[in-house]
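Here is one chain, start to finish.
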Amino acid sequence: MVKKATTKTKPKKEKEPKKESPKEVVVEAEEPVEEVLPLELEPEEGEKTNGNGKEKYFSAVGRRKESVARVRLFTKKSSDIIDGEKALIIVNGKDYDVYFSDVNLQNVVESPLKKLKSLNRFKATVLVKGGGSRGQADSVKHGIARALVLFDINFRKKLKKSGLLTRDPRVKERRKYGHKKARKSGQFSKR
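Its structure:
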């Protein structure tokens, strides 16, 4: 009796059709499409709805190191309550003197308003994320200064002269290979 050799054959795969590169689709729009600027350069005016109605605000972005602050600047209403000589700035849902517990950082945050001598004239809501407390305070300062310029272009000269509109470009230097940090190396051993 002769045994037949059994071989298992793999089922043939069906050939998939070649993938075509996506073709450009031209859509005719009824209205002309506006060119979108980067978030940093786009002057944004918006309206925020409250129980009382709509409030007009000026929006700007401030940056420093790793932190980014989105600022909305409102003109203060008579119904807004302020304690003494301090600004009405809300940072991530908290008052700025609670969020930044250090007095120096509080002074940094309110410096654009102090420079214009309008500490009680505006209120601001800020969303800030990334970085440490110092970087966040500087980014809030930068954002408030930019929003003030959007509010009134005449503020620009005073804020520019005091250096509040310049984004501080200094960031942490990258770590180099063979070193512990950017410049620090390990201890040298002669023998």
